[in-house]
Amino acid sequence: MLFHSLLSFRRDFKAHDTDIVLASVPKSGTTWMKALVFSIVSRNHFPIDHSPLLVNSPHDLVLSFECDYYLKPGYIPKLENLPQPRVFATHLPHHALASSLIDSKCKFVYTRRNPLDQFISQWHFLLKNRLWPGAKMSSLDEAFNMFCDGVLGFGPFCDHLLGYWNASLENPDRVLFLKYEDVKRDPYSEIKKIAEFVGLPFSEEEEKAGLVGEIAKFCSFDKLKNLEINKTGIHYGPIKNDSFYRKGDVGEWVNHLTPEMADRMRKLLEAELTGSGLILDI
Ligand code: A3P
């Protein structure tokens, strides 16, 4: 995001109390969360077998502040007429958000992921995609050092996490902290949790009709990955839709990182998070 665009976002964006913002470090499951939250909020408009997700990437249904709306310097997007509730996404750290978001009563859904898996996912993504002309991905070792130095993709990782974590402690009804691994293990409960948090709980009839399970299945890795729209098409210039679906596994880092690297990351994170009450359990 260019400096001018960030300024414009911070100055011009007007939050609504009903807005929902999906926040995450890249490669923490943003695409998945976009599909899930879109399905939850639009369930009265589209039965799942007619979901717009069948023909649109989740990234085209839930747009991001920095990658979409405020990407072009000088362009002020018209957001007042978006369907309600408006759903946005961001990788920006909490301290970089527009003050109108902080001052409103909007809700944040923050997804975090085991940083070892998140790092590996990011490394693969950067290897495959040139985010700007001439961009060159470093070796795994170099990228790992960049992560540890806090200069890889919206880092430092802990600052990002702690910004939203502290906000969730101050205002638990405004920031929901989710774990990629929990959504993977028990999508049913997590989908219900999200729906309740954003003020759109599933009714007894919806639950009996199996709607929660349908959303979980429809947004599963295998289903989304294999939709034609997610195999083809281009998202954000050079990035292909299929780049957002690699393995979708938990604990896959063991195939790439040495025990020493994992240990270095653990120690680093432990030192940064001590006293915060946030335990990463990695
Ligand atoms: P891997 O690279 O480990 O496979 P983001 O959407 O934030 O860019 O994160 C991408 C990561 O989420 C990738 O992880 C991708 O495979 C995984 N992912 C995408 N869709 C998913 C889904 N429906 N369920 C689980 N994981 C998913």
From TrEMBL:
User: Is Iron among the key words of this record?
Assistant: no
Specify the Sulfotransferase domain's residue ranges. Answer: 17-276
Alphabetical list of Pfam families matching this protein = Sulfotransfer_1
Tell me the superkingdom of the source: Eukaryota
Say which enzyme class the record assigns.
transferase
Q: What is its EC number?
A: 2.8.2.-
Q: Which UniProt keywords apply?
A: Transferase
Q: Which family does it belong to?
A: Belongs to the sulfotransferase 1 family.
UniProt-recorded name of the protein: Sulfotransferase
**What organism is this sequence from?**
Buddleja alternifolia
Q: What is the lineage of its organism?
A: Eukaryota, Viridiplantae, Streptophyta, Embryophyta, Tracheophyta
